[in-house]
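Thread title: Can someone regenerate the structure for this chain?

I was given the following input by a collaborator and told the matching structure tokens would be attached. They weren't. Posting the sequence so someone can regenerate them.
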Amino acid sequence: MQAVEISSPGGAEVLRPVTRPVPVAGHGQILIHIAWAGVNRPDVLQRAGSYAPPPGASDLPGLECAGVVAGVGPGVTRWKPGDRVCALLPGGGYAEYATCAAEHALPIPEGLSLRVAAALPETAFTVWSNVVMRGGLQSGERFLVHGGSSGIGTMAIQIARALGARVWATAGSAEKCASCEKLGAIAINYRNEDFVAVLRKAGGADLILDMVGGDYIGRNIRCLADDGRLAMIAFLAGPKAEINFAQIMTRRLSVTGSTLRPQSDRAKARIARELYERLWPLVEAGAVRPLIDSIFPLGQAADAHRRMEGSAHIGKILLQVSAEN
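Best answer:
Regenerated them for you:
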């Protein structure tokens, strides 16, 4: 099969087209013939040498895909060859074939193409598990997401709106703010507005989803409402901050967070079940729909990474791996 590997830690230029053997589905796994693969920030971190694959995972980058089941391993009863699926992968998405746990695959939502469905798994698993399962977002609450124009951000805005929350989103340009507003958020241009002041004027955020970290951590705590929750999913500005824990105690705040890739197969399967039961109906109804920024052929994965690192994208970046079938 054709694939793209990381030849050595470094810049986008280290992504190299190669030929690899087709993997074999093990017990409880399926083999997917990939049509489309998503490009995510963890792929960039892995390429740079700072985010190693979990034990037993493919060394190839790529954490989500959509395609057709090409084979099933022992113990798999839910899927059969020919089924159209999108899936969360432990790695290996930058290739024509990849394996994953059968429980981490989901049927293509009614009305979606494989291309659009490929943009769902990584963002849907991440947002749902942190905003709904960990963050407990409720209808009527005030929700703030940083990086509102990213793949994660655009998904978070839509999910929160579909659940009946009031949504604010930070972004760094007029164009990005406009994209957030089109999805139903109140946009805050962080280059000339203070999100703390905006949210405190509105009564404080009940839940914040943050991928920035750094000095945003203390600012997030200051703009939470009493009993508010902060969910961390990344640290683009660094993982360290000095914060006043008295605020957490006296205002009954909660700070949580997670990374998706290292979680157990059982934990990911639980998230997948919730997505199928609660999010997939919203997707099929049109209330939630992945926003796609750009598409690159598999052999141009380096250009896709440059697009990601340039931070000009709005929504998801995809790789076309093979023709839809």
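The two ends are 17 Å apart (CA to CA).
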